[in-house]
From TrEMBL:
ATP binds at A53, V54, S55, D59, I79, G154, D159. It comes from Methanothermus fervidus (strain ATCC 43054 / DSM 2088 / JCM 10308 / V24 S). Coiled coil: none annotated. The keyword Zinc applies. Zn(2+) 2 binds at C270, C273, C282, C285. GO terms for biological process: tRNA wobble position uridine thiolation. This is PP-loop domain protein. One of its GO terms (molecular function) is ATP binding.
Amino acid sequence: MKCKFCNKEAEVTIRYPRMHLCENHFKEYCENRVKNVIDKHRLIEKDEKLLVAVSGGKDSLVLAYILNKLGYEFEGLHIDLGIEDYSEMCKKSSKKIFSEIGLPLHIVKIKKLLGRGIGEVKTRRPVCSYCGLTKRYIMNKFAYDNGFTAVATGHNLDDESAFVFSNILHWNIDYLSKQGPLLEAEDKFVKKIKPLYELRDKEISLYASFAKIEHVTKKCKYARGATSIKYKKFLDILEKDNPGIKLNFIRGFLRNRKIFKKKDFELRECEICRMPSQGKRCAFCRFWRLKEPLMFQ
């Protein structure tokens, strides 16, 4: 097969929209997909002070690489989870890509900040649950404290379609009302954006391979058995028989998202960290039993 746009041999076949592409035109296709999502949903405004959260995995590192290639200015944030050798590998990959693109990378070490790493807390709560809580809080507070106006994450089409599917199954209306490539800033919550919203997991893997982006392929040991993985596998089966169903599902959701009305919560300031909270203390300060707010060096 020949590439759709040139006479070179095609190295990639995209089933939806169906086309055969050489390496260069495949990378261009992915970059254009990201740019289109940014422009369509107005994710990045002029003079935006952008923070890109990178884990060391393929998604966030490809995001940083593409945003840099598209000419956007930003800084990076890596959260060292303190999970033995796994976190060291993630930190190494994150530092390498930011060294190559010549942009600043901030590293926050949970173990140094909170005294314990992820997986070292004695609790009945699933590790993935409080890990997610911790990462979301630190990303937002670091961004807010340092004057960033937006935080970009590497969530892709597979992540988002599984998340929406899960929340429709459980009718989590409030989550559905806020789901999408853009979550506007509110109070001390900094704007969140997802530029990889329409790129598939396999496309990102191929892009990382072609662009020679070194990333961690080892899965976190605490992710085993996560329900999101089960939903992704189910949607993969549907996608195999119906190419494009994930993209059409997520686009259809965005067109009709207005039917899910956001619940009105009265927010107050957490008495510990002064960040938004529904109670006297926010969920983060309650879980980590903080007596004073986090201070980032």
